[in-house]
Amino acid sequence: MPSAPDSDLLRAAVGYAEKGLPVFPCRPDRAPYIAKGFKAASDDPAQVREWWTKYPNALIGMPTGAATDTHVTDVDVKSRDGFATLKKLNLQLDHLPQIATPSGGAHFYHRLGGLNLRCTAGKLGPGIDTRANGGYAILPPSHPDPKRPPYAFVNGSDFLAAPPVPPELVKLLREGHKPKPLEELEEECARVASASPGQRNDVLNKAAFKLAKLVAGGKLKESEVREALTKAALACALQPYEIERTLDSALSAGKRDAEASGGRKRRETVQGRALELPDAVPWEEAVDGAALARALVSDAKRFIVLSDAQADAAALWVLHTHALSGTGISPRLAITSPVAACGKTTLLEWLGSIVRRPLEAINISASATFRTIELAAPTLLVDEADTLLRENEELRAVLNSGHRIGGSVIRTAGDDFEPRQFSTWSACAIALIGRLPATLESRSIEITLRRKLRSEVALRWRSGREEAVILARQTRRWAIDNAESLKRADPDLPEELYNRTADNWRPLIAIADRLGADWPGRARVAAQELAGVAESQSGSLGIELLADIRAAFARRDTDRLSSESLIAELILDSERPWVEYGRSRKPISQRQLAALLRPFKISSKDLRTENNVLKGYALEQFKDAFGRYLAD
Predict the structure, then answer these.
(1) What whole-number distance in Å separates Cα of residue 145 and Cα of residue 131?
(2) CATH level 3 topology of 6-175
(3) Nearest to 357 by CA among 504, 215, 472
(4) So what's the pLDDT on residue 532?
(5) Domain 289-530 is in which class?
(6) Which residues touch 34 (CB under 8 Å, ≥6 apart)?
(7) Cα 330–351–423 angle (5° rounding)?
(8) The CATH number of the domain covering residues in 539-629
(9) What ranges make up the beta strands (E) of 151-307?
(10) Which of 132, 326, 416, 477 is 20 to 30 Å from the Cα of 150, by its Cα?
């Protein structure tokens, strides 16, 4: 078995004994041949000769620790690169007596010098063990594997002349090396990337579970953990959907475990319950993206009255929430209406059944928002924003900054007021009556809903639908399979889109291009149609105006009114708001009238008379608005 002659092993073993070093025979797998193992080691040359006569191919084992005054730092390279760990520890061992191992590692020798040190496994970091009291090492010229080199001395064979264990190493051995969070992330990724078939998913699961505790403690961002582990798992040939499913499960479980292990005192003092966001399990098979998007459109239109462009935008935005890692911009989805009862909440509920990690946020503070985003990377679904955002500039700033990847806020934390960075990057849908603040509006794609006509059909919303679960799972799978392609996408945009409007539509059009079929064209048509819809108005005032305009047409018994004549009719009643309108407290102007009617898609036009052409309105223009917002 060994390549060295038997007499070499015998002579070497006897030679160690003659120097006063106790040795004992070991099998090729390094297990002792004799009972009691290293505890029965002997420095009697006769006993040693007898053993190696009986076991001529035996490896030469030597007890470490007090028995030989030796301490061995065992650097391994079989599963982990111990030399890389050694470099991070900044331990200079190259000058020491050392033994090269068959696997390419090394045993570095120190004298124990009376210290009470025991063996350790991984305490200094991945790929490094130590041998002292209670352990043993293999000496040259032992040769366990003929396909590899034997154990061999480096820097001379007199390891008994080694220096004593240095204080910095003693400190590390007693206190343990505490790797920094990014080092732990790097180490776990290396373990995943080198995992062998049959163990890959298990190794990924354990790595994600361990790192989730660092995420829960605010030491790592979940997004960077996901990205790093995904790359490592792809390197060991795991499939994307397997990776995502494992990460979702393990990270959630790890964070729950970290929360549960926070101690009874914390559980007694912290109110509320731990945040748990639903996340779809990826569909088992690859998904036809174009068909999926059509199914999303069809499903949305069952419950909400939407135009084709609005439904297409909603479907693409749902896909965007699952593919957030593939873009650097996340347009806010502004769901507006001129008055209440137009379906905004229903649309939010529909979105919440399919988007990635939905979180309803009807009454949420700025602090809770960015802390939740940092912890769980949710899709925010903000309802009644006309009340929530009215005087809350801090929350508006948080939602604004989350429009672009890397968006964050800085806050101090802990007793030492350490500055900490909190991510604000997230997908977000916002529902309100009226219009968003200008800064949010410019970062949004707007869907303006109108009240349903009696002739229009929409089913009553019900939660917990199995169809929504299937759509969410299929959407998750499609996003996973296409994430890398979306990162490289640079779609051509319609010329009408520019500046931030172009930024808002770019990720959705990139998704549409990836979907294929008729979706590239549909997305661009939707963008052109919706990009100009950014103005809405307070609902109750708008309805009052519509009612008064209908009355004005009835009083004049006409189907056309000039803007001047219409205003004259509106200010006849001194108790109506049009008499003293706006800050000036003057009668409503033609410009102000046009602004109030714009959300209802009504604008003035040229009216021809016998003598001239006047700006005004035709009764036919108001038919749709009267039907939607005024009682018969």
Answers:
(1) 22
(2) Prim-pol fold (3.30.2250)
(3) 472
(4) 56
(5) alpha beta
(6) 24, 25, 40, 51
(7) 35
(8) 1.10.10
(9) 152-154
(10) 132
